[in-house]
Amino acid sequence: MDTQYIAVDSSRETFRRDTGDAMRARYAEVHAKSVVVVDALERGRDAAVLAQWSVASAQAFLASKKAAALSKGFDVQPDGTCSISESTKQRVYLSVATEADNGPIANKFTTAMAALQVEANNHTTWVKAALAGAVDADNAAKNAIEAAFANMPTADSFGNASTTPTGTPQPPQGATPAQNLKWWDSLSRTEQTALINTVPTSIGNLDGLPAPVRDEANRKMIPFEQDRLTADSNTFAQALKTAGENGDMAGIAAAQTGLDRTTQKLSDLAAVRTAMEGSTEPKRYLMALDMQSGRQGRAAVAVGNPDTADHISVTTPGLGSDLSSSLLGGRGGDGKWNPSGGMVGEAETLIETSQRQLADAGRGGEQISSIAWFGYDPPQGGMGSLDDITTPDMINVTNEGRAQEAAQPLSSFYTGLDVASEKSDPHITALGHSYGSLATSLALQEQSGVVDDVVFYGSPGLGADIPGLPGVGGLASPFSALGLNDAVENAGDLGVRNGHVYEMTEHWDPVGNLDAFGRSPNEMPWVTHLSTDPISVNGETYTGATNHSEYGRTDGTTQNLHRSGYNLAAIVAGLPENATNPQTDK
């Protein structure tokens, strides 16, 4: 700058008169302002150097507190909250399950978990204090750097025709679906596109936004998640190898758990990618994608656009379900998924059956969207019989915890569908299978008030006033069996009108009569009970099904849904009389 200033000043002999004077005056003005900029840069540099040490010290202290919490078997959330990890829960359960005394395992587990929760709360306090210190150090650094540039000349003071760019508004935090949509609609098309391209994970999972927007954002996340999970898998594999070489048994266990869960999520993500590939009709929409929370992948796949549909169904699966084995029905003998298998295929057949019923009723123009919602970690185990349930996950099968985790996000998802709909009042049906019926019930008890009908099938109960009340021999307690422990006593408790709660229990279903979480709904007189016996309607045969996993599946002989699936299609289409009083062939 100084060299250039001398050169300009020396031009007086060669560049004279008004033009030369104007140029030199203009340069002097810019030079003076530039000196201020250079001074600010030097002060900012000094502030940044000091901040480097203070922030690094605060980060190191925070890292030590986080490491202490992790070493105790706690998960540490971004806000500093410490919670009991999945592996710790299973370790505690296995520990109490092998004790020799005769006390109920559930009671011992609850006591142990309560003690762990106290310790988790203590670590939460320590981590949050360290986090607050790191935030203070960061704010101090930010303030010092900003102060260095406090008296900078403005861009327009240089006399240049330029504008100062403004940042793209970021997604709201903790907003309702209605507030999310209002914020989205306030953005320009350019701002919306920028957000989808820069922070797709925040947009794709934001309830209330249009389905095509969420779909576009979530599809963009698939390759990024693939790369991240692959890198994590390699890291855990190396950690496992190193721990094995060092004889570090704790390290081996931790690395193996991390590797197993990452492998599961990679498989879950591959199933989602397969489901969304190619051109399908009705079109599919990836309404949610989360490969970081929980022990398995989470997603929601809609068949048909819920924004334009007259009827929307949301199916929440239960015991033993995950994206890898349930979304497309698992891999075939060739190691590949059937893109129209599993819950996605069931959704397609459900839509076809519903539309056939609507056409018969003279309402063929109405549209349907069916959504498979995997927004939580269901207890794992077999689906065919109780003997298939794996021991390490038994405590989750008999506990409401997983369903309670699903309640708020599922309730918000329902509300988001209503908010984003282009219809004035879309007909929304909640479908809950197995343990997913408990999750559905708890979500409806959040009182979102937007669901019109609900069908529970293969349900072990809708919620208990006293969760985990011990029974005898694996059966429910008499208190629960008599209906004295029911948390849901009428349709209003679920936020729906009387006569709009339905249930189905197939023959030989080992789960539908457990009374595990209050009474099973097939014992509740205020619930409308739907038959699952074979039926023939308009020349189409709908067979009966005989076990816990067959409710929504297609019969291999007739290529139609079972009778239970026909009933689901009737309720989803807003034609409950077809399920309660079908016009059978004579």
Task: Output the number of helix runs.
Answer: 17
Low-pLDDT ranges = 382-392
The major sheet is characterized as:
8 strands, mixed
Give the rounded overall mean pLDDT.
88
Structural class: alpha/beta
Oligomer: single chain
- Which percent bin holds the helix content? 40-55%
Q: In one word, what is the shape?
A: globular
For the record, give the distance between the C-alpha atoms at the N and C termini, rounded to a whole number.
98 Å
Strand content: 5-15%
* Radius of gyration from CA coordinates: 30 Å
Care to count the β-strands? 12
Largest sheet, spatial ordering of strands: 3-4-6-5-7-8-9-10
Taken in chain order, the helices and strands follow as HHEEHHHHHHHEEEHHEHHEHEHEEEEHH
Features:
586 residues, 48% helix, 10% strand, two-stranded antiparallel ribbon, alpha/beta, 12 strands, 17 helices, 8-stranded mixed beta sheet
Descriptive notes:
This protein has 17 helices and 12 strands. Helix content is 48%, strand content 10%. By secondary structure, the chain is α/β, with parallel strands linked by helices. The radius of gyration is 30 Å and the shape is globular. The strands form 3 sheets. The protein has an 8-stranded mixed sheet with strand order 3-4-6-5-7-8-9-10, with helices on both faces. The longest helix has 55 residues, at 17-71. It has helices at residues 2-9, 17-71, 86-97, 105-148, 177-185, 189-198, 200-204, 211-246, 249-276, 323-327, 342-360, 394-397, 401-420, 435-444, 478-481, 563-572, 577-580, and strands spanning 74-76, 82-84, 284-290, 298-303, 311-316, 368-374, 427-433, 453-457, 501-504, 528-529, 535-537, 540-542.
